[in-house]
Amino acid sequence: MTEQIDSFTNGLRDRLNGIDARLSSLKSTLESAPKETQAAIETKLHEVKANLDTKRHEFSTYRASLQELAEEKGTEIQAMVEEWKTKREVEELNRRAERSERYATGCVLVSMAAIDEAEEAILEAMMARLDADKAKSGDKA
Question: Cα angle at 51 between 45 and 52, to 5 degrees?
């Protein structure tokens, strides 16, 4: 039993470490933004867009799966779970545990997708601000 919990928590820890790394990268992008040239920002934006384009289907799948799992979770009644425990219905309890683990993993994956989408939105906002500043100052390029 503890082996399954260890495996689950190690997998989540790895994903959360990935989120932490993505947030650190995003933070450094924001901190260096005032020093970046428009070309550098455009390059970074193209890279992020290309990465997102390849992941969009995957993100949609995560979100749909998460919605489905949330609905299943809502139909579980605590009294039913207590009955399973009392009757030692291991299969039902295992299915419940696996659904809960998939739900937790899905939440982490959706948050990772949100970070990627936030990075794209931030870079697009920076580009829009540069365009507005150039128009204000009368620059043509």
Answer: 85
- Check residue 140 and give its pLDDT: 61
CA distances 81 to 13, 21, 95, Å, are: 27, 38, 11
What distances in angstroms separate CA 96 from CA 3, 78, 80, 122, one per listed residue? 17, 12, 11, 39
Q: Closest Cα to residue 19, out of 106, 114, 123, 120? A: 114
What element of type H or E holds 69? Answer: helix 38-75
How big is the CA angle at 61 (ends 56 and 65), to the nearest 5 degrees?
Answer: 150
Q: Return the domain boundaries, the chain.
A: 2-32+39-136
Between the CA of residue 102 and those of 3, 45, 47, 69, 118, what are the distances in Å? 17, 32, 30, 8, 24
Q: For 21-40, how does the pLDDT look when each residue is reduced to its tens digit (9 = 90+)?
A: 988 888 888 888 778 888 88
Q: What is the pLDDT of residue 77?
A: 75
Residues of the chain whose pLDDT is less than 50?
none
